[in-house]
Task: structure prediction
Amino acid sequence: MPGDDQLLLEVKNLKKYFPIRRGAFGTVKKTVKAVDRVSFFIKKGETFGLVGESGSGKTTTGRLILRAMEPTEGEVIYHLEDREPFDLMKLSKKELWEFRRYSQMIFQDPYSSLNPRMTVRDIVAEPLIATKALQKEAVTQRIRETAKKCQVSIEFLRRYPHAFSGGQRQRIGIARALVLNPPFIVCDEPVSALDVSIQAQILNLLNDLQEELDLTYLFIAHDLSVVEHICDRVGVMYLGRLFEMATTRDLFFSPRHPYTEALMSAIPAADPSIIMEPIKLTGEIPSPINPPEGCSFHPRCRYAQPICSQSIPEWKEYSPEHFAACHFAGELELKGAFK
Amino acid sequence: MSALNSTPPVEIPDLEEQTMDRAKESFYTATQFQLMWLKFRRHKLAIIGMFVLALFLIAMLFAEFLAPYGSQSRDADYLFGKPQSIHFFDDDGNFRGMFVYSVISQFNIDTMQVDLVEDRSEIRPVNFFAKGEPYKMWGLIKGDLHLFHVEDAFIHLFGTDSLGRDVYSRVIFGTRTSLSIGFIGVIISFILGLAIGGVSGYFGGLIDDIVQRMIEFIRSIPTLPLWMSLAAILPKEWSPLRVYFAVTVLLGFLSWTTLARRVRGKLISMREEDFVFAARIAGSSDARIIWRHMIPAFLSYIIVDLTVSFPAMILGETTLSFIGLGLREPVVSWGVLLQASQNIKAIEQHPWLFFPAIFVVISVLAFSLVGDGMRDAADPYSH
Result:
């Protein structure tokens, strides 16, 4: 673990269980463990990637970290420049409102995340006005500056979102996230809804903005080539649990979890002469209502042993900053995407 | 040659492109209601419906001016009179403008009945914007100007009823009553639907369950018996005006359920909407989220629902009054007028007493057409 002065936030034992209502009187019969005992940390100025299949809980984790929804249990400790470290989950409603200036979010779908009934100016201005961060006179100035940074033309400010394509809309979404000058941004699959040609533009924009404004990103994605391009460190999630966390280099060269290995083998190469040998996972991703006993990956794991179906593997650091949750993480010789 | 070459190229502005750009820019900066109007305009039938509704609205507002007579004025010589014909040429074939002949009753010796025949000896010209029977507009403003009027005689475009009252004038006054019942009823159901549906969708849980079961219960009661029993509660000695208000409120109180359901559904789906979520992360208060994001997003749907629920109100009033449980004379509504045509004799001998029914059909159709067009236009952002 790095020292406190390097950290931006620490997540400890985060849980989010959704009750499933059954029966006429709303009796809770079962729960879905969307996020289960997740712990990780994010360092100042880095891009931390969170990858996993759909339903793995990565988006929920991103939302919990901003306390956009209430967790069932767990701590999220922020280390902000001008404040003592604090647990976000313990903040009062008013304190939470004040915290909004320090973190914002970029959404996956650039269509549904912009209110079609508001002008671009009003959309970008919303965080400023809602948090009362600036005097009225300064708002216009700030909006223009932010729009320029995010490559949104000033003339576009009076238009409505229906005038724009996906890439332009995403720039507007980024401008909204940045208008408060927050140090931390959660990017929830910001490019997965965009065309490939535009994905690169948006990723480069995010990179440039990070350098210019000294931002820290939590980057949620399912596209490993995007993650490899933009992230410094990566966490791999499966069925609500974190399976592995390491620097991008470490993870792509020498993964320690069989699930990560399977993911790595499925990255398509841009060279048609390379023969791909993806590891085929058998079966479907299990239902989160009835996750398998023990390690939730064991029914699909080709290295599974009897112990895997009996006990949940511990989350341990195997080499510096390389964490994994697998009984055999120290023994297996796994292949990464890079050799 | 070199001098010619050195002239700077003259820039010819491409006018077509400029107008294109301006059209695009105005589309890009169009508000929700401008976009809705663009979409609505393409719906030809809805535009016709809207035009018809505008006519009804004018009739409602200026009934006294449009009707040549008051709703209770009698032409004692012309009972159950059929619609008078409008003439333009006299018996010699000369063009005489628009005119009518007055009607006189003659006793027919052969059939032993009174026959109404046109008195062709004198031409009665129809005067437009002429002074006629004095009235008080909305019971407030005195006037005597009418759209058309015939001096020293009567004009009955739709004939007369058993007491010799002008059916056309009464239909116009009935429009005012019937549509105003619709308006007030719709407003009552709007307020109730918004409040109850809003509470149900916003709080959820047990409150939601109770409200939903209540709505199911109300909706499961057959409408007609319910109306009848409720209308029967209204004391007979109440003045017609009081009955009028009671019926209006009653219709409103029974029709909020659909709207409440819609509001609840919209609220629930809206809570999960990405832009609402984004607003919450941006630090917006609940009040700001409701006013800036949620209400504008479902307002258009609610307007559509209100338009669509109008016909039900009008038909409800008509039905109630027709079976004699709603409004009563001297209040005139389409339903009250149709009461006069309840027997077989009316159909056989005085078919013009059915004119109010045509108005009911036209107004219901117009509202439905407009509602249809609005439904298509309600979400201009679907893609």
The longest strand of chain B covers residues 124-137. Residues 153 and 361 of chain B are 32 Å apart (CA to CA). Chain B has a mean pLDDT of 82.
